[in-house]
Amino acid sequence: MARDPVVSRGVVQILSREVGAFMLRVLSGGSMRWLRLVLAVALAALPPLSAVASNSCIWSLIDHKWTKDTSGIWNPSIYRGVVHGLTVAQIGAALWEGVGSRLGRTAWQGIDSQVFAVGSSEVMKRVLTRVRPSETDDPCLFFAHDSNHSFPSGEAAGAAALVAPYIFEYGSEHPGAYGLLALPIYVGLARIKNQEHWQSDVLAGWALGGAWGWYAHQRETPLFVQILPRGLSVGIKTRF
Fold first, then answer.
1. Burial label, 87 (beta-carbon count in 10 A; 0-12, 13-18, 19+)
2. What is the value of pTM for the model shown?
3. d(Cα 105, Cα 89) in Å, to the nearest integer?
4. pLDDT band (50, 70, 90) for residue 69
5. Alpha-carbon distance 202 to 187, whole Å?
6. What is the pLDDT of residues 147-176, one digit of tens each?
7. What are the residues whose beta carbons fall under 8 Å from the beta carbon of 121, sequence distance 6 or more?
8. How far apart (Å, rounded) are the C-alpha atoms in residues 201 and 181?
9. How far apart are CA 65 and CA 224, in angstroms?
10. Which of 46, 127, 209, 216 could form a disulfide with 109 if both were Cys (CB 3.0 to 4.6 A apart)?
11. Domain boundary assignment for the chain
């Protein structure tokens, strides 16, 4: 089926405007908390110098292959089930509460954040085409083309983007909200244990998801509220 060129141009213009606004906000320094967190985790993940002495690129300072494990909590079906369940719950909360309530608005921001993070990570994967650790011991292999889509981790980005708006919204009042960070940490570690991603893939995914979460939280009106029919964002509970 042929695409309507007018609709295609409109979608491209919307996405271009959103990405441009996002970059301006990030460059203004608003996501330093996430950057500090990612840097701290990166430093903690550094292997001993003896382990990287024979490697030939800067990625060797961070990236090293873990023994593969897909059992128990590291089983992809387990952590994907958790993320998918929370995503469905978020969509349900957005539709039920509507954009008029604090929780509803944050849920709509979470939807924006996840879509932006997963979409941008997929673009980056296809441009950078990094080889996964399951296929090589060398973390320096970028631009390998074909189906090499290791950098960044889309699942780590999606998990971070899912929880970020809630942390930004509620964290200062309820410090327990920072416990939501357990989700992206769990997913990221699982992806490394599965040998699907290098450590830097996951760190980049966390940073990407956190930055998109911050941007979505800064928007007064979530993007999907703007583009979807108003009846979907009013809130089902307001109709009763």
1. middle
2. 0.76
3. 14
4. very high
5. 9
6. 889 999 999 999 999 999 999 999 999 999
7. 152, 153, 154, 157, 158, 205, 208
8. 17
9. 39
10. 216
11. 73-229
